[in-house]
Amino acid sequence: MTALAVEALTAGYDRSTVLSGIDLSVPTGGALGLLGRNGVGKSTLVMTLMGLVSPTSGRVLLDGRDVAGLRPDLIARAGVAIVPQGRRIWASLSVAETLALATRGHGRRWTVDTVLDLLPRLRERLGQQAGQLSGGEQQMLAIARALLTDPALLLLDEPSDGLAPAIVDQISQLLTTLRGEGVTLLLVEQDLHLAFAVCDRIAVMEKGRIVHEVTTAEFRADRATAHRLLGVA
Ligand SMILES: Nc1ncnc2c1ncn2[C@@H]1O[C@H](COP(=O)(O)OP(=O)(O)O)[C@@H](O)[C@H]1O
Ligand SMILES: [Mg+2]
């Protein structure tokens, strides 16, 4: 099955078109790493998939059902969750309050307890205000909050941003564990090592389009293309 298929998706803001015909797909249980320079539209794509930016045309198929243009809450109910760029946690809420707000009900795969088993550090911080957590802990909280909506497809927008390498390793292990649980991932990253460790395919965006898509092994073997598209060594 194909968890996510995006077909000819266009979207933007007011007068500017940012996404000009995106095609991509992620098989159920797969993980696609989405790379690209600043400003090419990666966050706009993720926000459009979540329904936070309205598409102007194209399709977003979740297990074959078109959700393009639906409200974010309906897209969430269809099994999509977002870990937004910059984490977007409420600084004044405690960890426990943040998790309680995200919880949808009983009988689900992820509960506050199972999420805290996965993220034991957060259990020690339950009473603390989210704004007082370290950057890594805030990122873990943003991931925990997303998991509590029980996503089949998790969209992560630069989860490693600003974090120390040891914390990025923890995020890498966490995402690998989630893959083992069958969660499908779309991971926007600047940290190539994280994308390589977690994802089986890599796509590159330039100016609102996917210009390259290969297996992670193929991407790693082709340094010239990586350099041309991303400017990295
Ligand atoms: N809320 C917004 N309103 C208007 N333009 C925006 C908004 N968010 C992003 N943009 C513009 O859309 C383009 C793509 O931005 P973005 O999707 O954030 O790229 P990336 O995540 O790849 O860095 C940029 O030119 C950016 O300035
Ligand atoms: Mg971005």
Automatic annotation (TrEMBL):
The keyword DNA damage does not apply. GO terms for molecular function: ATP binding; ATP hydrolysis activity; branched-chain amino acid transmembrane transporter activity. Residues 4-232 form the ABC transporter domain. InterPro entries: AAA+_ATPase (IPR003593), ABC_transporter-like_ATP-bd (IPR003439), ABC_transporter-like_CS (IPR017871), BCAA_Transport_ATP-bd_LivF (IPR052156), P-loop_NTPase (IPR027417). The keyword Transmembrane helix does not apply. It comes from the Bacteria. Keywords: Amino-acid transport, ATP-binding, Nucleotide-binding, Transport. Gene3D superfamilies: P-loop containing nucleotide triphosphate hydrolases. It holds the Pfam family ABC_tran. One of its GO terms (biological process) is L-amino acid transport. Belongs to the ABC transporter superfamily. This is ABC transporter domain-containing protein. It comes from Pseudonocardia sulfidoxydans NBRC 16205. The lineage of its organism: Bacteria, Bacillati, Actinomycetota, Actinomycetes, Pseudonocardiales.
